[in-house]
Write a structure and sequence with these properties.
Layout: H1 2-7, H2 11-23, H3 43-50, H4 55-73, H5 78-81, H6 84-93, H7 97-107, H8 113-134, H9 154-184, H10 189-209, E1 214-225, H11 234-247, E2 256-259, H12 272-285, E3 288-296, E4 303-311, E5 314-321, H13 335-338, H14 341-344, E6 361-362, E7 368-373, H15 380-388, E8 393-398, H16 408-423, E9 427-431, E10 436-439, E11 445-450, E12 456-466, H17 470-474, H18 477-503, E13 512-513, E14 519-520
Parallel strand pairs: 1-2, 2-3, 7-8, 8-9
Antiparallel strand pairs: 1-12, 3-4, 4-5, 6-7, 9-10, 10-11, 13-14
Helix pairs in contact: 2-4, 3-4, 3-9, 4-6, 4-7, 7-8, 8-9, 8-10, 8-18, 9-10, 9-16, 15-16
Length: 524
């Protein structure tokens, strides 16, 4: 241990170790998908920050760990944003700097049982505060929230229906803290074990008492995934392929056909021929078609990404304009300052325009759907709002074709399982090039997953559900509870510091000597 401590005495070596430790949790997400790894992945980072020689060094350990986490989570952006990926990771990584300080404050040296008990609540709360800040769309949104690594674990999905992905993140961090204490602080193992038992008890209680969605009738939803279509006239050729795939659905008794994001590259008012072809497809299949138009609008300035519903007579008038855009991919934040990103990567040359409100659409026979576009499926508040507004099926139209051979498509599709479990509503994730998938109201996958190599049209029997989950009713209560915990702990620390200051003995004033060498009293 002394040798290791000596080796870590170098600030740069220590920073490199912190970055690697921060990157470890990414293995719990798709594509590796080692979901169990999330429950111990933070331990090396916690142990490093706990052993920091000073509070300032713990801050750097938090920052470098956050940098490693963000870089690993977004490494697939490197071919497109190049050096700017490192800039983004460094800026967002700074959010974990206070968390590193918190780790040392609560677990450093030889913490008492009380401090360990506080750490089991305060450190997960601090992590949630970081996730809350970085979930702001202007900072990139909630991609890679720690709790999202549990998307395929049934008990975790049940917990998501109670407190959303936030509750999962809290519990994952709490378990990591308990494991770190068991390893490093022998005298405080009792509160650590108590924390693990409490986590298990909370999980069991949620499993038993959380309401399950009631399911009854089923609807047939078809996903059309054309696959990669690139090169000259790709928008026209993609439409032709989607049209051919959709025709295969005729006679299949489909209720709704869903195309992926940017499936139509022209405004339908400017291309009435495409609107007529879509209407003909609706008549042939007997179902309405939800397409996604990525084009400059004819009725207002700017480029929009819009979910547009088409029926047998053409566009029905139901339209949802994407509200939360991808930073750099669809707009450049503070373009006057960061516009240089377009010269070193594939950042948006022109900003897309934003929609102003979410929309629930009636696609016939009383079926109501709530569309989202692309990484809007990462925002739990959007799906929650759609469920509260009466959507029976949630949909996300996506395109990850730029990142076809990376971890991004699988991770993006996994988010739909969480949104389904949180809201108690089935969710459809339809893409241009994969991964496309459908999940029921509990977050379990329905039917086959269309991978990045697939070009197909597939019909899914989707069971509808009724009722409301605790998360839909009460919202992001784990976040509010976490902020309250941090406020109470901060106030308690402030009171403690004040008491120590008041109880400290007055500083002793040394006696001064006169020119004759005799002592003089203060004030004389």
């Amino acid at each position: 241990m002394k040798t290791l401590g000596h080796w870590l005495a170098s600030p740069w070596r220590r920073s490199a170790v912190a970055a690697v430790a921060g990157a470890l949790p990414v293995l719990a997400f798709p594509a590796p998908g080692l979901w169990w790894w999330a429950w111990v992945a933070l331990v090396p980072w916690l142990l490093l920050a706990r052993a920091a020689p000073s509070g300032r060094r713990a801050v750097y350990d938090g920052w470098w760990g956050g940098f490693g986490f963000m870089l690993a989570m977004h490494h697939w952006l490197l071919p497109n944003l190049h050096v700017f990926t490192f800039v983004i990771a460094a800026l967002l990584g700074a959010l974990w700097a206070p968390w590193g300080w918190l780790v040392r404050r609560l677990l450093g040296s030889a913490p008492s049982g009380g401090r360990v008990a506080a750490a089991l609540v305060v450190l997960p709360s601090g992590w949630l505060a970081v996730e809350l800040v970085r979930s702001w769309q202007g900072l990139g949104g909630p991609w890679g929230m720690l709790g999202a690594s549990q998307w395929q674990v049934a008990p975790a999905l049940r917990l998501a229906s109670v407190g959303g992905v936030w509750l999962l993140s809290f519990l994952v961090v709490a378990v990591n803290v308990a494991v770190a204490v068991l390893i490093a602080v022998r005298r405080a193992r009792v509160p650590a074990v108590a924390g693990l038992v409490a986590t298990a008890a909370a999980t069991s209680a949620a499993w038993v008492w959380s309401p399950r969605p009631d399911t009854d009738e089923r609807v047939a939803v078809a996903l059309v995934q054309p696959g990669v279509v690139a090169g000259r006239d790709s928008a026209d050729r993609r439409f032709d392929l989607e049209e051919r795939l959709t025709r295969r659905l005729a006679g299949r008794d489909v209720d709704l056909v869903v195309w992926g994001e940017s499936s139509v590259g022209f405004d339908l008012d400017d291309r009435p021929d495409l609107a007529r072809r879509l209407a003909a497809l609706s008549r042939e299949t007997g179902a309405r078609i939800l397409v996604n138009v990525d084009a400059r609008r004819s009725d207002r300035p700017g480029i929009y990404k819009s979910s547009v519903l088409v029926g047998p007579d053409g566009p029905t008038g139901d339209r949802y304009d994407k509200m939360r855009l991808v930073p750099f991919g669809e707009y450049v934040p503070a373009r006057s300052v960061l516009g240089w990103a377009t010269s070193v990567g594939e950042a948006a040359g022109e900003d897309r325009r934003r929609g102003s409100r979410q929309v629930v659409m009636d696609v016939g026979d009383g079926l109501r759907i709530g569309p989202m576009v692309c990484f809007e499926s990462a925002f739990p508040d959007m799906s929650r709002r759609l469920a509260a507004d009466g959507a029976e099926v949630l949909l996300a139209q996506s395109s990850t074709s730029t990142f076809q051979h990376s971890w991004a498509p699988g991770q993006h599709a996994s988010l739909a399982a969480l949104r389904a479990a949180e809201t108690g509503r089935p969710m459809v994730h339809a893409t241009l090039t994969g991964v496309s998938a459908v999940y029921d109201a509990s977050g379990a996958r329905i039917g086959p997953r269309l991978g990045t190599e697939a070009s197909a049209a597939h019909v899914y029997e989707v069971p509808l559900s009724h009722g409301s989950t605790p998360y839909v009713r009460f919202g992001d209560w784990p976040v509010r509870a976490a902020l309250l915990v941090l406020a109470v702990w901060g106030a308690a620390e402030g009171v403690r510091a004040l008491r120590l200051r008041r109880g400290a003995p007055a500083p002793r004033v040394p006696l001064a000597r006169t020119v004759h060498g005799s002592p003089a009293r203060p004030g004389h």
